Amino acid sequence: YQRRVMGIRSNLSTTLLRVMEEESTQLVSASTFPSTLLYGLKCYSISAFAACAAESTTFPLDTTKIRLQLQNEMGGVYASSNNGSLYTMKKGMFRTAFDIVNQEGYASLYKGYPSAIIRQLIYGGITMGLYHPIRSAVSSLGSSGNIDPQRAPLWQKIMSAMCSGSVGQLFASPTDVVKVRLQADGRLQLSGQKPRYRGTFDAFVRIPREEGMAGLTRGVWPSVQRAGLINGAGIATYDHSKQLVLEYAGWGESVWTHVTASLISGLVAAVVSCPLDVVKTRLMNQPVGSTMYSGTVDCLRKTVASEGVFALWKGFAPTYARLGPWQLVFFITYERLSKDFLGSNF
Fold first, then answer.
1. What is the Cα gyration radius of the chain?
2. Model pTM score
3. Between 85 and 331, residue with greater pLDDT
């Protein structure tokens, strides 16, 4: 009888302890919610600030890239601003940048800059803000025990980066449409035509008014696909190559580690994303009512048929010339701010 009573007491004590532990865990979770929210806001702010710093540094190269990707579009011919004669553009990165400055002024290299910053405040914050939580969730799937997300397989990092980049671009796509159109407007001036928009605010007002809200979502799917690819290649490559450099080079969390991983990340991202970047640019630049391209596949087909397969890598030099420094500025800024405000590195 005494053994039965002792057994009941033991079971009751165990049950009470378990309930108390569950309740205390819930109380701790509730009490830590504000700090968790604050941590998330810090992550978002750091990512957005680092993205804006990188965008500001490399924006002229982005304008140059856009012009290169649009040159000779479907055999297009443009008028010379000097003597009115017609010519078919076929220029490289430096010649294109020189002509923009010479014929339109230095300020033309920064057309669409405000919308680009708005985009990075949305896209940059969401992309990096979601990457670490998604990476942790993916790395824990099908695993038991504590898993270090930094040592997750490369394919898991790619999946995580593609998901976060696609979500970020889905929300930021309207700002991308405005940026591309403002950057492309300089071509109209060279041919003696009036630019479509007076500035960023005018474009945000007129595009939905003249084309409906669908006008701000032109090229959204190739842009989402590109964002998935560029982040899957860029962020995951940085994450993985940084771990390899830390493991084999012995440089520690130094600026050389961050520089090396950033440049590798930029190269891989440029190679992978350039074809979809060309398609995204051409679809977003289509005026209302245009039937030049019906979608991503149609644009790919017509571009290759009209200009050859290497047309899909038009603007590769400025793409990498931009992505290399962009990744460099972004990750060094992110690493520094993350260390100062979050107490940890990437």
1. 25
2. 0.74
3. 331
